[in-house]
Amino acid sequence: MKVIEPYKCVLSHGGYLQSGGHNAIVVFSACHLPDRSRADYHYVMNNLFLYVVKTLEQLVTEDYVLVYLHGGSSRGNVPPFPWLKKCYQLLDRRLRKSLRNLYMVHPTFWLKSVVWMARPFISSKFWRKLVYVTSLEELYKLVPVEKAAVPDKVKNYNAR
């Protein structure tokens, strides 16, 4: 779909947990999401969600790690809570179960609040998989993410 073409870079392959392994590292960059002021925002986001799910199904053969890069994003391009809730509920059970860890990099108070508000809707097992990471240096110690998978906006945010 042409409408999501500029936003496909929101998802990238960040390598594998071990060399020669099959445990993919998937990087989701919020700074590449569309701005909520777009007239067709919901249409774009729904199609982007389908693209993300299709890509995850192709990348994920075993357990995987998801790295959510929040740094470098603005208030206008962070998706609203109801959309996030709907996406989690629509996500295939296999993808939810094979998630080994979710690393949230550069979490803001707002992001932590949204995650906390989602607690009643998400399984208790998920909370053991969630890790807040304050810097890229800390992330690189925890997960061998390919540095090329991290956008410049996030690197610049980290350098501040």
Give the arrangement of secondary structure elements.
Elements: E1 11-16, E2 24-29, H1 41-59, E3 64-69, H2 81-90, H3 93-97, E4 99-105, H4 109-117, H5 124-129, E5 130-133, H6 136-142, H7 152-159
Parallel strand pairs: 2-3, 3-4, 4-5
Antiparallel strand pairs: 1-2
What are the key terms here?
alpha/beta; single chain; 160 residues; 5 strands; five-stranded mixed β-sheet; Phosphatidylinositol Transfer Protein Sec14p; globular
Strand order of the largest sheet: 1-2-3-4-5
| Count of distinct strands | 5
Helix run count? 7
Helix content: 40-55%
Structural class assignment = alpha/beta
- Element order: H for helix, E for strand: EEHEHHEHHEHH
Structural write-up:
By secondary structure, the protein is of the alpha/beta class. The chain has a single domain, classed as CRAL-TRIO lipid binding domain (Phosphatidylinositol Transfer Protein Sec14p), CATH 3.40.525.10. Helices cover 40% and strands 18% of the residues. It is built from seven helices and five strands, in the order ββαβααβααβαα. Strands 1-2-3-4-5 form a five-stranded mixed beta sheet. α1 links the parallel β2 and β3. The model has no long low-confidence stretch (mean pLDDT 87). It is found in: Cytoplasm.
